[in-house]
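Researcher: Sequence of Tail fiber assembly protein follows. Predict its structure.
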Amino acid sequence: MFNYLIDESGALFGPVEFPVVPGIGTQLPSNAVTLGIELSPAPAAHTWAFVDGALQLQADCRGDVYRTDTGFRETWMKLGDLPDGYTTQAWPGACHRWINGSWAFDETARLVDLNSQALAKRDALLREAILRIAPLQYAEDIGDTTHIEQLALMEWKLYSVELNRLEQQTNFPTAIDWPQVPGSSQ
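Model: Prediction complete. Tokens:
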């Protein structure tokens, strides 16, 4: 006779041997079963399990799985085949999509990602420019600017216009010629 442990998902582990208790005999824990045969090793990504009281070979995808629509990782706890929309293949990253049963590089997604990153950087730089322009513009509005402040105001305004026109560059978003920040020594 061969003893096997059954885990919470129904998978069998073993065979295992339990100690003999003097005067009582072998005591099986509540999560153990005795079989008249020794089970052959399960093929890769499979395990023996009790399903509806019957011994069956089941797919074993427990552990990390990935959603094919988002690539997000989840922990799978059930035995059996994964439902549609899940895979055990690790998601390579944001520029990959699930196509014909595997992850494939998606150039369009890469361009969308580059575009998003470039516009986020541009917007952050524009916010900084607005902080620099505002006090200079106030001085201009009240007629209290120096010649240096007038030049600085013009440089910051030109810089802002150049930032705003980034999307018009020929190779945007793959190659961007970022304007030089006024007053920097780049």
